[in-house]
């Protein structure tokens, strides 16, 4: 079975697409030939939404996850929803407000990476608040200074765009990989980067806004001590 065409990789603003059901896996997950649903990964939650059928009925999708092998995007139906048969034509539609919040937050975390020049040991993305863990060693972090830095980068309205490089190019620039425990997926011959010129450049497969000005006001709400070297920086929308 061919892998699902991941339309969100090239256009994160697509809210819906026409698709065909290619199968249902052993766990009841629905597979499509193409999708706008982002599957859970890189700290970003999978999209929720619905599959609309030709008769006007809907199958509610609780989340999207990565499966095994060619099951690169599995649409997980909400409890009690019947799965369609292979060949069914549907319109795959995401919960846009939730996705857009994830896009803004995920891009905001890239700005945080630009302000904290240390290795990333973990992260979580939510619709209202998010966090990154940094291995800062003996360095210190200032909550107010980080908040000001984030909002300065937002106000500057930098362009944001994905681009691809070859795996050999990434090997020649190991400093691009900020995550200390997780490496970008390999095997396809190329790696997707998120590029905010003059601000941040690193491998990332998530969804992001097109300009930093779309993020809106951010605040660093808390910096937590998570070990001798590790600090968790929490951010949220709002002043």
Give the SSE layout.
Blueprint: E1 5-6, E2 16-24, E3 30-32, E4 34-35, E5 49-53, E6 58-65, E7 74-77, E8 89-94, H1 96-115, E9 119-124, E10 129-135, H2 143-155, E11 161-166, H3 167-171, E12 190-196, E13 200-203, E14 218-225, E15 230-237
Parallel strand pairs: 1-4
Antiparallel strand pairs: 2-3, 2-8, 5-6, 5-8, 6-7, 9-10, 10-15, 11-12, 12-13, 14-15
Helix pairs in contact: 1-2
Task: Report the CATH topology name of the largest domain.
Answer: Threonyl-tRNA Synthetase, Chain A, domain 2
The CATH superfamily of the largest domain is Threonyl-trna Synthetase, Chain A, domain 2
Strand content: 35-45%
Q: Tally the helices: what do you get?
A: 3
Overall geometry? globular
Low-confidence stretches: none
Largest sheet: 6 strands, antiparallel
> What structural category characterises the helix and strand content?
alpha+beta
Global mean pLDDT: 94
CATH class designation of the largest domain? Alpha Beta
Distance from first to last alpha carbon: 48 Å
The helix fraction, in percent, is 10-25%
CATH architecture descriptor text of the largest domain: 2-Layer Sandwich
Order of helices and strands: EEEEEEEEHEEHEHEEEE
What's the domain count? 2
Rg: 19 Å
Strand tally: 15
Strand order, sheet with most strands: 3-2-8-5-6-7
Structure write-up:
- With 239 residues, this protein is α+β, with helices and mostly antiparallel strands.
- It folds into 2 domains: 5-94, Elongation Factor Tu (Ef-tu), domain 3, CATH 2.40.30.130; 99-237, Threonyl-tRNA Synthetase, Chain A, domain 2.
- It contains 3 helices and 15 strands.
- Helix 1 (96-115) crosses helix 2.
- The longest helix has 20 residues, at 96-115.
- The chain is globular and about 60 Å long.
- The model has no long low-confidence stretch (mean pLDDT 94).
